[in-house]
Write a structure and sequence with these properties.
The structure is a single chain. By secondary structure, this protein is of the alpha+beta class. It folds into two domains: 248 residues, FAD/NAD(P)-binding domain; 151 residues, no CATH class. The strands form five sheets. Strands 1, 2, 6, 7, 8, 9 and 21 form a seven-stranded mixed sheet that branches. β4 and β5 form a beta hairpin. The longest helix is centred in the last third of the chain and has 19 residues. The mean pLDDT is 96.
């Protein structure tokens, strides 16, 4: 049996961040990480397209929490303790400078996730954190004041345990056996599968600011939209998928979306089209895209109105103008299924939040059992917010685990 003061289950971002901070704050503690795979930090490696979207440049806690469909209320207090500015400072103190992109996402200056991985591995080594690879946890039990953890390779004993395994059904089952309630996981960040002539053969087209609504629901979002080979993606869709995770799962990912491509009312759009009919009388509608729409999408929408591609603005009748205004402001698309967003598989679900003390991230049910990251029923929209939750929860848990 291997004895440690603190065991961290999960060799991902939250696990390493917690272990390093525990060992740094209390060098007397023997800290170890148990990783089920042959490598650590694999999700960090692929995040942000291999660049690692470390956090998001939002520095007001009340604004930051709005990006968490599950966890908004609970994270407000923790974000007052440790948030974006603290994350930036933590990495910069360890030689990793971050930069802010136009959309607010923050990456290492190197544009490489390996920079973050190297930082964690270096800090873990410096603070004598032991890392056990290929140690998949088989059982987790509390015996008197100690935790006994059996892995595929050994048995460990520890006074304190932090679980940072992300979305892991096997670990959730072990936590359930210990007395915790698990909210059933459903996908949270996903793209929409849509087969429709209006977007066929134009993958890569981006519309900068659309309004998307799920028909027969209160769900809506706005932002950039990307047309893909399989349907639609980008922030407008991903935000909707995150906040609508539970509702869209109930619908088995079969529903309709209403898209306003020009972000204006039907009436305003129609009035502009009427003016264009006068101003561009001799030009063809098909070849004169408006509203800053990409040319290929504009042409698809014009053809969807059953207009000839040679028709001039002067010859467009009232019904055709109304049909075009309808396509621009309230185009309905049928969604049939979903696809994972890149490698960044995020779920809604996990340990019920009411069973956690968010001042310490300790279990209310099992003393000295702590949590960090997505093992809890907390998830966020894309853009660095899931990592910020990992850093915040791991740091606060570490503070409390190292001081008691």
């Amino acid at each position: 049996m291997i004895e440690k003061d603190v065991l961290v289950i999960g060799g991902g971002a939250a696990g390493f961040f917690a272990a390093i901070n525990i060992a740094e704050q209390n060098p007397q503690l023997k800290v170890a990480i148990l990783e089920r795979g042959k490598d650590v930090l694999t999700k960090v490696k692929v995040s942000g397209g291999g660049r690692c979207n470390v956090t998001h440049a939002e520095f007001i806690p009340q604004e930051l929490v709005l990006n968490y469909p599950r966890g908004e209320k609970e994270l407000l207090g923790p974000f007052h303790q440790f948030m974006t500015g603290d994350t930036i400072e933590w990495f910069e103190k360890r030689g990793v400078a971050l930069k802010i992109e136009d959309d607010g996402r923050m990456f290492p200056m190197t544009d490489s996730s390996q920079t973050i991985i190297d930082c964690f591995l270096s800090e873990a080594k410096k603070h004598k954190v032991d890392v056990f690879l290929n140690h998949s946890v088989k059982s987790l039990q509390k015996e008197s004041e100690d935790f006994i953890i059996e892995t595929t390779q050994d048995i460990f004993k520890s006074k304190k345990v932090l679980v940072a395994t992300g979305s892991n059904p096997k670990i959730w089952k072990l936590l359930e056996d210990l007395g915790h309630t698990i909210s059933n996981p459903v996908p949270s960040l996903f793209t929409f599968n849509i087969k429709d002539e209006r977007i066929r053969d134009i993958p890569g087209v981006v519309v900068n600011n659309v309004l998307v609504k799920v028909v027969d629901s209160h769900l809506e979002s706005s932002g950039p939209l990307l047309i893909t080979h399989w349907g639609m993606s980008a922030p407008a869709i991903l935000k909707l998928s995150a906040f609508g995770a539970l509702e869209l799962a109930k619908r088995d990912y079969k529903f309709q979306v209403d898209i306003n491509f020009v972000n204006s009312s039907f009436d305003d759009c129609l009035n502009i089209l009427k003016q264009l009919k006068h101003d561009l009388a001799k030009k063809t509608v098909y070849k004169s895209p408006q509203f800053d729409l990409p040319k290929r999408l504009w042409q698809k929408l014009v053809l969807a109105c059953e207009m000839d591609n040679e028709i001039r603005w002067a010859d467009v009748n009232k019904d055709q103008l109304e049909t075009l205004a309808n396509q621009l402001t309230q185009a309905v698309f049928k969604v049939d299924g979903k696809s994972t967003f890149k490698e960044e598989f995020v779920t809604a679900g996990g340990v019920e939040l009411k069973e956690i003390n968010f001042k310490t991230f300790e279990s209310k049910r099992i003393p000295n059992l702590y949590f960090a990251g997505e093992v809890l029923n907390v998830d966020a929209v894309t853009g660095g917010f899931n990592f910020q939750n990992a850093w915040t929860s791991a740091f606060i848990a570490a503070q409390n685990m190292s001081s008691k």
